[in-house]
Design a protein that fits this description.
The complex is a heterodimer of chains A (about 375) and B (about 550). Helix content of chain A is about 20%, strand content about 30%. With about 375 residues, chain A is α+β, with helices and mostly antiparallel strands. Chain A has a six-stranded antiparallel β-barrel with strand order 1-2-3-6-5-4. Chain A has a six-stranded antiparallel β-barrel with strand order 7-8-9-12-11-10. A six-stranded antiparallel β-sheet of chain A has the order 13-14-15-16-18-17. In chain A, strand 8 and strand 9 form a beta hairpin. Chain B has 15 helices and seven strands. The longest helix of chain B is centred in the N-terminal third of the chain and has 26 residues. The termini of chain B are far apart. The chains are: A alpha+beta (about 375), B alpha+beta (about 550). The interface between A and B is large, with 61 and 56 residues.
Chain lengths: ~375, ~550
């Protein structure tokens, strides 16, 4: 399962050597970093990176894309294993069997989808630290992307960083201030779990993860916000703000129903206390359109938004005029707007006026009109699609 | 990892204390699970405390599905003394200053769409680009009304929704929001970009809907930006072939102006031609009713002012239609019966016999006139009866908004007209729906429900309701009764707002009711049916309305 690495001369050499084994992980509304942890090609990442998606994508060195399937998840420790559905031919990273030492210099490698590889250096600031029920070590640096490998200066994996520990901490109503210390789980503590997966890939066919409550260990259904066995808030659920109103609860339910109608689980695509992000297949092959749904603070209105095109470098006035005149078409509830350097198509409707079916129609219309407008604006103003 | 609770321990199902015996030591309960019921989804309660004070009347109107009044009340509550009702481009409208901004509220009488618009600023020449850009950036907000539109140099905030989806608090909130945003943005644009005010302060009190500028319609492929939900392939959204949509005010003006000009010039007077054997025809104008009463009343018994045309079913004798030499209309007058005032001739209906007058000349619109709605509908399959019934009911619903706003007392007459038009036109094709309408609106002998709810129900059911027992229409048993009833109808029509679609609808309803409830001489019935058919086909043209009104006046005047 492991191969011995020639000792690199510099940290740049080390990164160059390791980067092939570090991949980006992209799910419907989440993403993170993973690395090849076993000789059979299984990729270890964070549960947060894959959410509750089973089918995910792996980005290899920022260019190649490969499909993967989540076969195991440890919700309590925020970990998941992905089986690449094609042989990637990537070497696994070597794991160091012992625990890191306090003061030891380490590197954390992050490969967020669509972004360049990022390397952060840190020191191990504490070992044998407990975060809830999980034994961790601590780095004196900000958390890297979820599932990032933390390696020593010999290129051996010491642990996995960027994890949501304690689980659900990222979804508190009042999130904690960013700390300059971040926890990581030692790879040594995972050896037993990983050894159970050091099998041929054919043995994982049909295998899917079971999600267990971090509080009581009972399996839970993704649709629930709280464990039905112990009542604890599940990691994907956002803490209810004390000031939350019934209107907000109703709006969340509307979105939940809408997403269910679209074939998505709200918990999987929720990216903020009142925000949801979906990747919708675009007409162009292998392209996706990102649609975000936002509920306002009071739960009064629901906004759906889809990026269209980048603002043209010239002829902005006719472009703006055209968008504003489009907004005046009497029969439409969609609107055009601009944020930063891109034009968006969106709807913003009072929740009280929306029924689930109508919201679904509105969503579909947003996607359809977005596709058409993107093309029309591209043809008319020579604009480029915004991602 | 914590494990699940040990299953071998028992706990009191009531208080949760560990059980050491069969009974709980601390509360006396046991381990028998409590009988808990499954939960049900609940809707958030309407937040009456959410600034909805002063909307009691709006609530009352809303619960009665009286949309016109409901909107008017909410606008009045928000706009205070500045609120005024002003006819909108396609139906009733209101203008008020809300939260410092002039807000225009318009209800589309046919579609039932409500629009809220607030002019914000006019572009200044030098800084127009930053203003356009900022307007688009502000449109990205979550606020439903933060949607900027551009009409030449005028920036307008605009929001639209189906009126039946709104509630008084939601409309109030939207009004407040659009007013607040318009006032705030106007200030920002003016201070930062020297933008000019949309409406001068001095003109606010008198501003009309024309202050909103002209919407520019775009055609960007098929449905690039179109209504939501996406159009169903149903034909029900098309105007009814035989039931033209009510003309817009501006259309009505276009249609009537040339006519009056032509009439004044004597170019195309609506005087029907006459047949040699027929009675002298009368122009189908209001004045002709008086003429008819005087002229055609000759020979009638002043003491028996019951025109045979209205004779109840038992009064019509076989002689009513037997003689071609007798007066064409109302020839059923037997000796001792009053002469029957003639009905205005029914145009474009082929004469079945020589005794009928030649089809009278139908007033034609001015040369620039548009084709009727019926002609603009793509030809193909005719709408199904259920679709036509729904269109009829939708029209009634949209007219209701107008009636409720201007003269709520006319509402029962509008409902009556809708139901009897349904009885007249769809009783055979859709007996269950018509029976449902008739019974549930209270026109039968059973107590009724709020009529607009019943109408809405039938529309939602697409004109297909559960089987109903056959119903029989309460007949008009005497001619006096019929005359009085039509007289009341006429009074109501005269009192309603002078909207051609509304008058057309009510007049057709009156004739349909007469046809449904009174036993008429065959010839009279045929002529009335011809008039109804003609009116259906031609829509709310002035000439058609005049024709029907004349008929009604003659009937009522006996």
């Amino acid at each position: 399962m492991t191969t011995s690495l020639p000792r690199p001369q510099t940290s740049a050499d080390l990164v160059a050597q390791l980067r092939r084994s570090v991949v980006g992980v992209r799910a419907m509304s989440s993403g993170g970093t993973g690395f090849v942890a076993l000789g059979n090609g299984l990729v270890l990442t964070s549960h947060e990176a894959v959410g509750y998606q089973i089918e995910v994508f792996l980005e290899i060195e920022g260019a190649r894309r490969a499909a993967g399937r989540v076969i195991w998840a440890d919700v309590t420790r925020d970990l998941a294993l992905i089986l690449p559905l094609e042989a990637l031919g990537l070497p696994p990273l070597l794991a160091r069997p012992d625990l890191p030492r306090t003061g030891e210099p380490v590197l954390a490698l992050s490969a967020q989808p669509g972004q360049p590889l990022r390397v952060a250096s840190a020191l191990v600031s504490a070992v044998d630290r407990r975060v809830g029920s999980v034994r961790c070590f601590e780095l004196d640096g900000a958390a890297p992307a979820g599932g990032s490998p933390v390696v020593d200066m010999d290129g051996r994996v010491l642990g996995v960083g960027g994890l949501d520990l304690p689980r659900g901490a990222r979804r508190r109503a009042a999130p904690a201030l960013p700390s300059r210390f971040s926890p990581a789980i030692p790879i040594a503590a995972l050896q037993r779990a990983l050894a159970a997966f050091d099998l041929t890939t054919t043995q994982f066919e049909g295998r899917s993860p079971t999600y267990r409550c971090p509080g009581c260990g009972e399996p839970y259904a993704v649709e629930n916000e709280r464990c039905l066995a112990c009542g604890q808030r599940l990691p994907h659920a956002w803490e209810i703000d004390a000031a939350a109103s019934p209107a907000l609860a109703a709006a969340e339910r509307l979105v939940k129903d809408l997403l269910a109608r679209l074939g998505a689980v709200a918990s999987s695509v929720r990216v903020g206390p009142r925000s949801y992000r979906l990747l919708v297949p675009a007409q162009a092959p292998n392209q996706v359109t990102e649609v975000t749904l936002d509920i306002d603070e009071e739960g009064r209105s629901l906004r759906g938004r889809l990026p269209l095109v980048r603002i043209p470098a010239a002829n902005q006035e006719p472009f703006y005029r055209f968008l504003l005149t489009l907004n005046d078409q009497a029969s439409s509830r969609l609107r055009l707007s601009i944020e930063d350097d891109a034009a968006f198509i969106s709807f913003a409707e009072p929740v009280a006026l929306l029924k689930e079916t109508e919201a679904a129609h509105l969503f579909e219309e947003l996607v359809r009109s977005g596709e058409r407008l993107r093309k029309a604006l591209g043809d008319a103003f020579d604009t480029k699609a915004a991602s | 990892v914590p494990t699940a609770a040990q299953p071998n321990r028992e706990f009191c199902a009531s208080c949760g204390f560990p059980l050491r015996a069969r009974r709980c030591d601390v509360c006396g309960g046991d381990a028998e699970p409590l009988a808990l019921q499954e939960g049900r989804r609940a809707e958030p309660s309407a937040s009456l405390d959410d600034g909805a004070g002063g909307l009691e009347r709006a609530y009352e109107a809303f619960h009665n599905r009286d949309f016109g009044r409901f909107i008017g009340q909410v606008v009045a509550a928000e706009g205070g003394a500045t609120a005024r009702a002003v006819p909108g481009p396609d139906g009733p409208g209101w203008i008020a200053v809300v939260r410092g901004a002039l807000v225009f509220v318009a209800l589309h009488a046919v579609s039932g769409d409500l629009s809220l618009q607030a002019p914000v600023v006019r572009l200044s020449r030098a800084q127009r680009l930053p203003v356009l850009r900022l307007a688009l950036e502000l449109s990205a907000q979550e606020a439903p009304t933060a949607r900027f539109c551009l009409r030449d140099d005028l920036l307008v905030l605009r929001f639209g929704a189906a009126v039946d989806a709104l509630t008084p608090p939601s409309l109030q909130r939207l009004l407040r929001e659009i007013g607040h945003l318009a006032a705030r943005y106007a200030e920002i644009f003016a201070v930062s970009f020297e933008a000019r005010p949309a409406v001068a302060e001095a003109d606010r009190a008198s501003a009309g809907f024309d202050a909103l500028g002209q919407v520019r319609k775009l055609r960007l492929g098929s449905g690039a930006i179109r209504s939501i939900p996406p159009p169903a392939p149903s034909r029900s959204s098309q105007p009814e072939l035989s039931e033209p949509a009510p003309a817009r005010r501006s259309d009505a003006a276009v249609a009537t102006t040339p006519r009056s000009r032509l009439n004044s010039q004597g170019g195309m007077p609506p005087i029907p031609r006459r047949d040699m054997d027929s009675e002298p025809p009368k122009p189908p104008s209001a004045s002709s009713a008086a003429l008819g009463k005087a002229g055609y009343g000759q020979g009638s018994d002043p003491g028996e002012p019951i025109p045979a045309i209205l004779a109840p079913m038992f009064a019509a004798g076989p002689e009513a239609t037997s003689s071609a030499n007798k007066p064409r209309v109302g020839a059923a007058s037997a000796p001792g019966r009053p002469a029957i005032p003639p009905l205005p001739p029914a145009p474009s209906i082929p004469a079945p016999s020589k005794s009928r007058p030649i089809v009278p000349e139908i007033e034609i619109e001015a040369p620039s006139r548009r084709p009727s709605v019926a002609l603009t509908v793509p030809t193909g399959e005719a709408p199904l009866p259920a679709e036509r019934l729904c269109n009829l009911l939708r029209q009634a619903k949209s007219l209701a908004a107008l009636v409720l706003d201007a003269r709520p007392a006319s509402m029962p007459w509008l409902v009556r007209a809708a139901v009897f038009r349904a009885v007249h036109e769809y009783r055979d094709a859709l007996p269950d729906s018509v029976a449902h309408l008739y019974r549930c609106t209270g026109l039968g002998r059973e107590p009724g429900e709020p009529a607009l709810m019943v109408i809405e129900r039938v529309i939602v059911a697409r004109g297909q309701v559960a089987p109903e027992k056959p119903f029989s229409v309460d007949p008009l048993t005497t001619a006096t009764q019929a005359k009085e009833h039509i007289g009341r109808y006429l009074q109501e029509i005269e009192r309603t707002p002078a909207e051609p679609p509304l008058r057309h609808f009510l007049a057709m309803g009156a004739l349909a009711e007469l046809l449904a409830r009174a036993k008429l001489p065959t010839q009279t019935e045929t002529r009335l049916r011809d008039i109804v058919t003609h009116a259906q086909r031609e829509g709310a043209k002035t000439s058609t309305i005049d024709l029907m009104m004349t008929a009604l006046q003659r009937i009522a005047g006996g």
